[in-house]
Write a structure and sequence with these properties.
By secondary structure, the protein is an alpha+beta fold. It is built from 12 helices and 23 strands. The protein has 2 domains: 2-213, no CATH class; 305-496, no CATH class.
Length: 536
């Protein structure tokens, strides 16, 4: 994301006029939460914030602040506009301080169509573009009509893929106060004019491609029953139950009802985390298409994510102790731009919230369809549940077991033609896969006790996200050799990687024919694609 000067040939569009109402109500919601919290906090001392005639004064104050927030949102809407060209998305915002930003499409990491609860009542959606960059590097275009948001997403993905897309340029558009042309957002000028009679399907009259929605092949779906069962078996639920039992015991033993009010925030925290997980991961579905990985999920706020090919930096398969029986796994990914949630409730970096081992490996296939080894299933099974070196892994030497009494037999790594595979954890098992071309940088860490046992920790520095690729307590010699060889493998892989504009290749059609479902890694295929840099 960078600042950009005004460009005369851009056609600027406004977002939907209902946007101020959709955004402004949050001010009132925040005030209601604050008032409710203060009321609950004052009850143990016999103080009621709403007693007497104070309730109507508080109500008038909330309404006044809400009107001010709504007015500011309306002014912000008036000063917000966006434009799209073949290389970038431009966004102008600001009431007191005007800002124009530009997001390069060749750096596009993901495109999300998000519908908060209130926006769904109006049939609106927000388009979020995540680009490789620092903090606050994304662009949010909202709110638009849902159909227009989907069409604009298709248009941007096509341009990010390197396709030239037809776009109708209106002959006459209204003029904004600053003298630049501003056009309302319509389906025609977002995704291209309809082709004239006689033109080939999928092309405009001038021969440019029109951006249809790419076909997709479903991969996994998570039912609400399994999602609820996974949350019941989670550590958060166990902590919540133990906390409630502990509070009940204290109240019975001390006969002090005030303990309930003091413990209420902790209980609400656990409950809020579980509800956030359920709401965010409800109805989870994944699919693969020519424009990337598609993920759909959400109960109150629905989200449709599209991650273009090759944008996933690292993948982690993780299993907690209460998921051992059904052999369930969770799959998280690092995508540049998404960042990491501080409370762990963010679902934007989830490739599979809960699934069987086969479903988890199918999710891994979405990112890396060829692991680059003759027997990928045996390697992955050893990485998911194996102990000690086995056939594939190099592990922590026995002399370092005192540094990690629980997990030292699990810590290890292996290397294939396409990826570096790291495993660790015995209570919470994890397997991390980093494609060679996505290696950002490497490092060795060695504390005083590690020097005493001649071991070191090997780390792969990835983009911010839930996955931290690292393997603990390797032999110092093994760690040093891995550092040198992995740096060379990463350099070679980047030299043979596909282009950022992934459709600018002769072997990739715009809309491929429907294909049979492809197997997960290790299901009897050794389809090598490293030579030509093909991405999923």
């Amino acid at each position: 994301m960078s600042e950009a000067p005004a460009t005369d040939d851009l056609v600027w569009h406004r977002v939907h006029p209902v946007t101020p109402l959709v955004r402004g109500w949050t001010v009132i919601a925040v005030l209601l939460v604050v008032v409710g919290q203060q009321t609950l906090n004052g009850l143990p001392e016999g103080q009621n914030l709403l007693e007497g005639n104070r309730w109507w004064m508080i109500l008038l104050g909330i309404l006044a602040v809400g009107l001010v927030g709504l007015g500011y949102s309306a002014l912000a809407w008036r000063m917000t506009s966006y434009a799209v060209d073949d290389e970038s998305v431009h966004l102008r915002t600001g009431v007191l301080f005007r800002q124009q930003r530009k997001a390069r499409l060749d750096r596009l990491q993901a495109v999300d169509v998000v519908q908060p609860l209130l926006a769904r009542f109006f049939g609106l959606a927000e388009l979020k573009l995540e680009v490789a960059g620092g903090a606050d590097s994304g662009v949010k275009l909202g709110f638009l009509k849902e159909a227009e948001a989907n069409r604009l997403r298709n248009d941007l993905l096509a341009r990010a893929a390197g396709l030239r897309v037809a776009r109708e340029r209106p002959a006459g558009v209204p003029t904004a106060a600053d003298g630049t042309s501003v056009a309302p957002a319509t389906a025609g000028d977002l995704v291209g004019a309809a082709p004239d009679a006689g033109a080939a399907p999928g092309t405009a009259a001038d021969g440019l491609l029109v951006a249809p929605e790419a076909p997709e092949q479903p991969v996994t779906a998570v039912g609400p029953g399994r999602l609820v069962a996974s949350l019941v078996r989670s550590g958060a639920t166990v902590g919540l139950v133990l906390g409630v039992l502990g509070i009940a015991g204290v109240v019975i033993g001390t006969r002090e009802i005030g303990v309930l009010f003091s413990a209420l925030p902790a209980v609400l925290g656990f409950g809020g985390f579980l509800f956030s997980r359920f709401s965010g991961e409800f109805g989870f579905r994944s699919a693969i298409s020519p424009d990337g990985i598609r993920l759909r999920h959400g109960l109150l706020e629905t989200r449709s994510q599209t991650i273009p090919p090759g944008r996933v930096q690292a993948v982690r398969l993780r299993q907690g102790p209460f998921w051992r029986g059904p052999d369930w796994w969770r799959v998280d990914v690092n995508v540049a731009g998404y960042g990491v949630s501080t409370d762990g409730s963010d679902t934007t970096s989830v490739l599979l919230p809960v699934g069987t081992r086969d479903e988890a490996l199918a999710a891994l296939w979405l990112v890396l369809p060829d692991l680059g080894t003759s027997d990928p299933r045996a390697l992955l099974d050893e990485g998911l549940s194996g102990l000690d070196a086995g056939e594939h892994f190099t592990v922590t030497p026995r002399r370092a077991r005192l540094l990690d009494l629980v997990s030292w037999r699990r810590n290890g790594f292996t290397v294939t033609d396409r990826a570096l595979v790291l495993r660790g954890g015995r209570v919470f098992r994890s397997l991390v896969v980093v494609p060679h071309e996505r290696t950002q940088s490497l490092g060795l860490e060695q504390g005083p006790l590690q020097r005493r046992f001649d071991v070191a920790t090997f780390a792969v520095h990835s983009t911010p996200g839930p996955v931290s690729p690292k393997v603990w307590h390797l032999d110092s010699g093994d760690a040093a050799r891995l550092l040198d060889t992995q740096a060379e493998r990463a350099r070679e892989a980047r030299a043979h990687a596909g282009p950022e504009l992934w459709m600018r290749r002769d072997d990739v059609p715009l809309v491929p024919a429907a294909a049979e479902p492809r197997p997960a890694p290790g299901a009897g295929t050794d389809d090598r694609r490293a030579a030509d840099g093909e991405q999923p």
